[in-house]
Design goal:
Elements (H helix, E strand, L loop, with lengths): L1 E11 L8 E15 L2 E15 L12 E18 L2 E18 L11 E21 L2 E18 L3 E20 L2 E12 L3 E12 L3
Antiparallel strand pairs: 1-2, 2-3, 3-4, 4-5, 5-6, 6-7, 7-8, 8-9, 9-10
């Protein structure tokens, strides 16, 4: 069993009006090895920030603010079904909340009160397999599914959007020598918003002692 946690806080300010900012970061991780061939871990992160928006270089807005509040939780399951096979499943759920506050006065044109807000959710599952059938050979095969949605509102409009993305990828790595590694791989992404597209990569890595 292992447990770890960390936290940080940062704040800054300059002479210009409404230029202060602060941010709080929290994270925690816990894991458990059920046996030599199976383990699980949980990750949680949290971010909250608040920053002044003094406007452009010519005007000083006294009270505009950018505010964010994001969090993520994730579960990782990892197993070694065979000496030559490592399998890993990562599940995550995230929320991002962003707000822009623009109360009056709003120089130089003195617009009235304005507020915009975006709330986004992202659910992701990634399944990855690494096969090492022989010394110097490594094969990576996996797939990812992501469901992302966002709701936006302001004083004048509101809309929402949801996009699903499915991905599959594979990579082969061959090391004929300790200082030579050959890699070739490909990935295909299918998105509701951007359609289907693929990429292919190949590289040669040479290292010196």
């Amino acid at each position: 069993v292992f447990v770890s946690a960390d936290a940080s806080y940062a704040a800054s300010d300059v002479d210009r009006i409404n230029s202060d900012s602060d941010a709080l970061n929290l994270s925690a991780r816990a894991g458990y090895d059920f046996c030599s061939k199976f383990k699980a871990s949980v990750l949680a992160t949290y971010l909250k920030s608040d920053a002044g928006a003094p406007n452009d270089r010519f005007t000083d807005d006294p009270n505009d603010r950018y505010q964010t509040e994001n969090w993520l939780v994730g579960l990782t399951l990892e197993a070694d079904p065979a000496p030559w096979w490592n399998a890993k499943l990562v599940l995550s759920h995230a929320r991002e909340h962003g707000t822009f506050l623009q109360p009056p006065p709003n120089p130089p044109f003195f617009f009235g009160d304005y507020t915009s807000e975006t709330i986004a959710y992202r659910d992701q599952a990634d399944f990855q397999n690494i096969f090492t059938p022989a010394d110097g050979h490594k094969i990576l095969v996996g797939g990812t599914f992501e469901d992302a949605s966002a709701d936006y509102t302001d004083n004048y409009s509101a809309f929402d959007r949801s996009v699903d993305t499915r991905s599959a990828y594979a990579q082969y790595e061959f090391s004929p020598h300790t200082r030579v590694t050959l890699t070739a791989g490909g990935r295909v992404d299918d998105s509701d918003a951007f359609g289907t597209h693929g990429t292919v990569t190949a590289q040669v890595l040479l290292t010196q002692e």
